[in-house]
Amino acid sequence: MNRAYRLALTGALGAALVAGGASAAFAAAPSAVPSTSPSAAISARPALTAQASTTTVNAWQEFRVSGKATAIKAGTKVTLQQKQGSKWVSLPATVAVDKSSAYSMRVKLGIKGKNSLRVTGGQATSPEFTVTVR
To answer: Cβ(91)–Cβ(105) under 8 Å?
Structure first.
């Protein structure tokens, strides 16, 4: 709970007590305080995992990128991104998260060398992984 919210809530409860409505203030207090625990806030954070079916491919050879989504609704689109220089560029590889919170997409890369990739969507970004194109 943030400090400003606690101060406002404490001030409101104090004013209610001074006004003589102590029983009303205590009855209303539990419903006024949001019931979020630290573990609920952590588990509600959107997250993505990603891994390639192989670490080395020939140019334009198809491979798969798959992973799991946490705290992201089914049907949310996730997109593969490639690091080009210092910028992340979205590739035309997009797929929706299924009911079991998983996704899998077919990918072909043509830029030879080590390609740094990640998956984004649903306000989350997967850790970076690499695929080498020969």
So the answer is: no
Length reported for the chain: 134
Phi and psi, residue 85, nearest 5°: 75, -120
C-alpha 38/C-alpha 52 separation (Å) is 33
How do the residues of the chain divide into helix, strand and coil, expressed in percent and rounded to 5? 25, 40, 35
Quote the pTM value. 0.68
User: How confident is the model over 28-81, as pLDDT tens digits?
Assistant: 445 555 555 555 555 679 999 999 999 999 999 999 999 999 999 999 999 999
Q: Which two tokens stand for residue 32?
A: 């006024």
Q: Give residue 121's identity as a one-letter amino acid code.
A: G
C-beta of residue 57 within 8 angstroms of C-beta of residue 134: yes
79 Cβ contact partners less than 8 Å away, ≥ 6 residues apart: 90, 91, 93, 94, 119, 120, 121
